[in-house]
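Ops channel
N.P.: pipeline sanity check, posting one input/output pair.
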């Protein structure tokens, strides 16, 4: 398989060669050079097909494959609110040949809950890049009886525990707790382990009243938002919780890529450069232009800083909601 040098396209970059399996360097030398010594790359998606994590990886797949001249083998390792997939990454060889999608605050919530032991610490992974973020939102089906966030909150206040909201495991619980604290309403939370791909049919089919998640829940056009956790020019007339009179709902959902702990810095940088180049691919940019995400461009240091900021925000939210 052909070798390529990302530095040839990026004049300021350190020359980092991605070689195919035919190179003869030993493992340490290959890692030091930032080489990916593998026929294919395994990409772990820790949630079900069709959800936000799957969508993020699929948007970038073709461009990344062209850049690194390797196929991405996408595998769904679901369960435990994402912990099954992230544990698989934590135990993978740190050679750059296994990478995973990552979601905030999901991975922070799993790792930081008091008394939890999910087999990894979020801080141990190597953060390649965060590619996008979205406000969290309350989503309802097209035929929902709730047309505004006030209708929704008023119904929950009038019928404590009767209005149902689904979300992704412990992270969804954190998000709905934040909404309850800000509004004084009481919901019945329905946890879903498989991710947004499993949440949408429940709400669209009328089995659950609403979902709380990022804008990936809008894919397919079956749901629409009542309120956002943060301002976004992508959503026109949809109010933030604060604008609707419920201040205190702040958390957003972010997606990115991580590598196993102890992956050499050169390989992390190689992957970061590949992701940044993929984000600039015309077809990828066109896809994002049609969606409701804010796209992020980060180097490795910025990716780590973003993780630390989201970790701190998650810790504060966990402490506030008990």
């Amino acid at each position: 398989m052909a070798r390529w040098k990302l530095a040839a396209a990026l004049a300021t970059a350190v020359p980092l060669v991605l070689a195919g399996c035919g190179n003869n360097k030993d493992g340490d030398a290959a890692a030091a050079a930032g080489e990916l010594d593998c026929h294919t790359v395994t990409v772990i998606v820790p949630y079900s097909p069709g959800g936000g994590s799957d969508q993020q990886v699929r948007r970038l797949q073709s461009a990344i494959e062209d850049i690194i001249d390797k196929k991405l083998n996408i595998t769904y390792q679901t369960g435990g609110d994402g912990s099954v997939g992230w544990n698989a990454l934590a135990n993978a060889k740190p050679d750059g040949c296994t990478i995973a999608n990552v979601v905030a605050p999901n991975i922070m919530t799993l790792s930081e809950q008091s008394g939890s032991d999910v087999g990894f610490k979020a801080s141990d992974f190597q953060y390649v890049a965060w590619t996008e973020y979205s406000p969290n939102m309350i989503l309802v089906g097209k035929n929902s009886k709730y047309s505004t966030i006030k209708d929704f909150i008023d119904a929950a206040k009038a019928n404590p525990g009767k209005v149902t909201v689904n979300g992704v495991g412990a992270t969804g619980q954190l998000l709905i707790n934040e909404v309850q604290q800000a509004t004084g309403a009481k919901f019945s939370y329905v946890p879903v382990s498989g991710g947004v791909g499993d949440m949408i049919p429940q709400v669209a089919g009328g089995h659950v009243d609403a979902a709380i998640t990022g804008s990936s829940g809008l894919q397919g056009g079956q749901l629409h938002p009542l309120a956002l956790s943060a301002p976004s020019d992508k959503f026109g007339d949809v109010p933030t919780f604060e604008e609707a009179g419920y201040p205190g709902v702040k958390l957003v959902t972010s997606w990115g890529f991580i590598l196993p702990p102890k992956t050499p810095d050169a390989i992390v940088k190689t992957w970061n450069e590949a992701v940044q180049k993929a984000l600039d691919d015309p077809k990828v940019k066109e896809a994002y232009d049609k969606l409701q995400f804010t796209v992020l461009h980060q180097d490795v240091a910025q990716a780590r800083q973003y993780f630390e900021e989201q970790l701190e925000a998650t810790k504060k939210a966990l402490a506030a909601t008990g």
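N.P.: looks fine end to end. Residues 300-321 form the longest helix (22 residues).
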